[in-house]
Design a protein that fits this description.
single chain; 299 residues; alpha+beta; DNA polymerase, domain 1; Cytidine Deaminase, domain 2; 5-stranded mixed beta sheet; 56% helix; metallopeptidase activity; UPF0758; DNA repair protein RadC
Length: 299
């Protein structure tokens, strides 16, 4: 089979094929026409080269676009770099008031999860637990049930909660507790509002009503904690405390005191009074607020 002639052959190429000028004229072909046809063929080849060059460039651009999302997934730091910088700048300029709860949590997660988009994780944590306080107060095991939160992130979140709790405790140490009652409530809420089981704790005070110690006496179930009045009074004598504040939580969230809460409080008051120990109050902490038995005139 004879290969077809490619466009762009000149007169010399035709003569090499065995045809003279007369033969060409005999076939009605004009030499000038053939020469100009050759020029057209050269232009055709140039157009063809340009076409395929453009096609290759188009394919290269297409492949680049197809691989861009994959590259972004591999190195998401570049994708979220601007967003993180803007969020940090807002915090620097306006403090925590400039950010929503999920943005504050997202800002914290930047350090804990450096190579992922932390906004969905922050929103998922708030959706699961309800508030920023509840996220930090949640048990580490429950935190890890949220997608994107591993053991190390859960541990770091609990570390932040512990630091906040220690700061609040520092505000009470050496000060008259009764003079800063709001600080007492904030401290107790941070310590136990989101605990999954009931805790009974006692704040031991000296004769100036300054905090000596804060101790968890008992931990019970979701709706009950055993309390031993003699043990409470015994520990107060060991610490040379002259006054105490009783505190326990309701994991259900409702801080309304039960009849058992009232009776137990009266029993401790009656046991402590002969020994010169005053029970200032019994505070019940819940997710939805707090209740003071003294404020309710129940003791």
């Amino acid at each position: 089979m004879t290969a077809p002639r490619r466009p762009g052959l000149n007169v010399k190429g035709l003569n090499d094929g065995g045809m003279d000028d007369e033969c060409l004229e005999g076939k009605g072909l004009d030499l000038e026409g053939i020469q100009s046809s050759g020029d057209s063929g050269d232009q055709s080849q140039e157009d063809e080269r340009n076409y395929f060059a453009e096609s290759r460039q188009g394919k290269t651009r297409g492949r680049a676009l197809q691989t861009a999302p994959r590259d972004a997934a591999i190195n998401p730091d570049e994708h979220f770099h601007g967003h993180r910088d803007r969020l940090r700048q807002r915090f620097r300029e306006g403090g925590d008031r400039a950010l929503a709860d999920y943005e504050l949590l997202e800002l914290l997660l930047f350090r804990l999860i450096p190579r992922r988009d932390t906004k969905p994780i922050a929103k998922a944590l708030l959706a699961r637990f309800g508030s920023l306080s509840e996220v930090l107060g949640a048990p580490a095991k429950l935190l890890t049930e949220v997608k994107g939160v591993g053991d190390s992130v859960a541990t770091d979140l609990k570390l932040v909660a512990s630091i906040a709790h220690r700061m609040l405790k520092g505000e009470l140490s050496g000060r008259q507790v009764l003079a800063s009652w709001s600080s007492v409530i904030e401290y107790c809420r941070a310590a136990m509002a989101f605990e999954p089981r009931e805790q009974f704790r006692v704040l031991f005070l000296d004769k100036k009503n300054a905090l000596i110690a804060d101790e968890v006496q008992q931990t019970g179930t979701v709706d009950h904690t055993p309390v031993y009045p003699r043990e409470v009074v015994k520990r107060a004598l060991e610490l040379s405390a002259t006054a105490i504040i009783l505190v326990h939580n309701h994991p259900s969230g409702d801080p309304t005191p039960s009849r058992a809460d009232i009776e137990m409080t009266k029993l401790i008051i009656d046991t402590a009074r002969p020994l010169g120990i005053t029970v200032h109050d019994h505070i019940i902490i819940g997710k939805d607020g707090h209740a003071s038995l003294k404020g309710l005139k129940l003791v």
